[in-house]
Structures are given as structure tokens and as C-alpha cells.
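In this supplementary section we document a worked example of the pipeline. Step one takes a protein sequence of length 253 as its only input; no multiple sequence alignment statistics are reported here. Step two produces a three-dimensional model, which step three serialises into C-alpha cells for compact storage. The input and output of this example are shown verbatim.
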Amino acid sequence: MQHFYVFKAKNWKQWGLLLVAALFSAIFLWVEAESAFSVFSTDENPAALSKGSDKDPNIALTFNISWGNEKVEPILEELKKHEIKATFFVSGEWAERHPDLVGKIKEGEHELGMMGYRYKNYVEQEKEQVRKDLIYAKDIFTTLGYKDIKLLRTPSGHINPEVLDLAESQGYKVIQWNVNPQDWKNPGEQQIIDHVMANTSKGDIILLHASDSVKQTPAALKTILPGLKNKGFKYVTISELISRADSNSNEVE
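The serialised model returned by step three reads:
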């Protein structure tokens, strides 16, 4: 007995769209997880920096802070113990509420970047709202005595060409990352350690957090900080990473 299967054209179209969507999702996830490259702006195409030069053992350790006051000092203590300078991206709203902690970050000779004023996804806002947020954040940091902040990490890390263009027009370099253990999810101290140790390579930018949402990061740093040093990596600030990457780029040209 023969069996015949009939599929309507409409069903084929739906399945085709699902397959295409799945393919693009798979490609996006692979690129996000596996790609390692520097992205520098040109006059025509503003871009975010997600990695420095892979010619040197330099890596940049970065921390985001948008709320809370309990985790900053334990993290600063670990950095001091291992003589490491990091880059802290803080929201203007947090800085306004905790000027003493911002001061301790600077006293430790760490670099200060910002995440705008209010921690709200820029991609979901109108361009004028983003512009106002950046301007207000700048006013807050200037009032606190930090008028030369040039590094910007957008809230949640979401960006698009319009946001990049606006940020660069106001003099900011947008900074992303390419090593992210998602410590804010508190997946376990050892999992944070394993992810960072296994995935860090030359020129990488590591994303960690110093908000009160992280419960395991300070303890994980006890292993990560000396562990990456023992693998031959050198910790630098984002500005140093950019400077070195620019230098290598010019040498290649």
C-alpha cells in the first residue's frame, strides 16, 4: 500500500521561516561565543570596542555597577591585594547616591567609565531620550569632580548604529566585552572561575559586576586574579588596552 503525504504551501512557508530564524539565531550565538576581534570606529562607521589587540598578553578587567553598596569594597580589596587596576562602569544615578564609593574606586587608581544616568536600555528609547540621559549623566559626574569620563558602556550592553553614532558625537568610546561568565546570575563560584579561566585570551575584555546582585564574584576573584596572571596575562585599564591596540594597528598599516 502506498502512502501519500500532502503539505500545504502555507505550511512549507511557515516551516521555512522557522528554519531561517533558527539558522540566524545559531549564527548569532556562535559569533557571540566564538569570535575574537577588535572593532574600531571609522569616520563612516562608529563601532564599539569588544576586544583589544591579540598581539600582546594585555587583558582588561571591567565591572558594572548600577545598584547597592555591599560588594564594591570587597572587590576593591581583592584588586588591591593583587595590585590590579580595573575599569569600573557606573551609572550616574548610582554615583550620585554613593559618591564615597566612587571616590574609593578612584583612590585605588582604577579607571572610571559610565553607563549613562539611569540604567535603562538605550535601544528601547527614543534618540532624544538617550541624548538627555547622556547629558544629564555627564553633568552629574562633572559635579562629583569627574569631568573627563570618555568611556561608555550602554545599559544592558544593548547598542545599535543610532546609539553608537550619538555616543561618539558626544565624545564617548563605547565599550563592550567578549568574556562574560554572567556572574549576576550567581551560577556558582567555580562556574564563574572556570568560564573566565577557560575563555580568556590576549586582548580580551572581561565583564564582571560589583552590584549587590552578585553573591559569588568577590570569592571567585581570589582564584581568577592570580590565576590569569599565572597564565601570563597582564591586567590593564580599557584606555591602556585601546592605546596598545591602536599602536599595533598602526604598525600593521
